[in-house]
Specification:
Length: 320
């Protein structure tokens, strides 16, 4: 076994140690079988993390929209029309208010990212070198439009069988069909393709089901899994935080290289900087920029080498 293969094997052992430590074996089995799983609140959000995240998201919505969200009847977000509606072609936003780039809004979102259970599952799906692609919030009130079934893998079909990206969504209010829950097609991750047009409406696809999850749960899925969302027919708000993760060679949704304040990095362990793309250097625009990016990323790569104990972390493992 060469050095890079040995490193991969060691990191895989580390992930399985974490899976056993957090008692996630049955959820991993379901994830492999169905392409998604629901981690219950007692494992996903200890210490009332879910309730605290909900309060933080409501604060962000009030700051950005100029009025407090109405959690009880959802009137503040009923038939919400967002900035992406022109691209969805629907009567109203199928996912409600999409509040992007949460990580800088509150230190609690840093804790949400560093949740050991979340990181264990993300590492299982996308490797120990996984990075954050984006963290946002969906806040959906009563609406008409369902969100079309799709995959999160940013590639044309056929898709690779391994997960290039993964989604780990904090469920902050109860999820069920009438509440506008995420729709899944169980086992669809194994088909390695995106749904065709006639398969994409969750209301008409006989294989689509609504995920049932209590507030404080974490819904996790493989990047190839077909998913969308049903419309919300009840009063109130559906609030969730999708934490979208990717292998480090996949283009991220948020560009975070060089954008993270030093005090934010200092209050977290070295893996936080790696997750926020600080160990990556691609995307340069000139020779000077390339040199500067490597100079910026090198200390974070070396910090991860020390953190993992794997001397080749920043080379071949970057692409595994």
């Amino acid at each position: 076994m060469d050095a890079s293969a040995a490193t991969q094997a060691t990191l895989l052992e580390r992930i399985w140690d974490e899976i056993r430590e957090h008692k996630l074996e049955s959820f991993i089995a379901e994830l492999d079988s169905k392409g998604f799983t629901v981690i219950p609140p007692e494992l996903a959000c200890p210490g009332n993390l879910g309730e605290r995240l909900l309060a933080a998201c409501l604060d962000v919505a009030e700051r950005r929209n100029g009025e407090p969200p109405d959690l009880k009847d959802g009137s503040s977000h009923a038939n919400f029309k967002g900035h992406l509606d022109k691209f969805t072609g629907t009567a109203d936003s199928p996912f409600g208010d999409l509040m992007q780039s949460l990580i800088f809004e509150d230190q609690l979102f840093e804790k949400a990212l560093m949740n050991p259970v979340l990181l264990t599952l993300a590492s299982y799906l996308c490797g120990y070198s996984v990075v954050l692609s984006s963290m946002g919030c969906f806040m959906k009130g009563p609406n008409q439009s369902s969100f079309a079934l799709h995959t999160d893998t940013p590639m044309p079909s056929p898709l690779p069988p391994h997960s290039m990206v993964c989604n780990l969504t904090y469920v902050l209010t109860d999820f069920n069909r009438k509440n506008g829950a995420t729709a899944f097609v169980p086992g669809s991750h194994k088909w390695c393709r995106a749904p065709e047009a006639h398969e994409s409406n969750p209301d008409n696809n006989p294989h689509a089901i609504a995920v049932e999850a209590a507030a404080g749960s974490l819904v996790v899925w493989h990047g190839n899994t077909w998913h969308g969302a049903f419309n919300r027919s009840r009063p109130g708000l559906r609030v969730s935080i999708p934490v979208y993760m990717a292998r480090p060679y996949v283009r991220s949704q948020e560009g975070l290289i060089g954008e993270v304040p030093q005090e934010m990095l200092d209050r977290n362990d070295p893996r936080f900087a790696w997750l926020l793309q600080q160990g990556l250097s691609y995307g340069w625009s000139s020779q000077d920029d390339a040199i500067a990016r490597v100079e910026h990323s090198s200390p974070h790569v070396q910090a991860m080498v020390a953190y993992t104990g794997e001397t080749r972390f920043g080379s071949n493992t970057l692409y595994g």
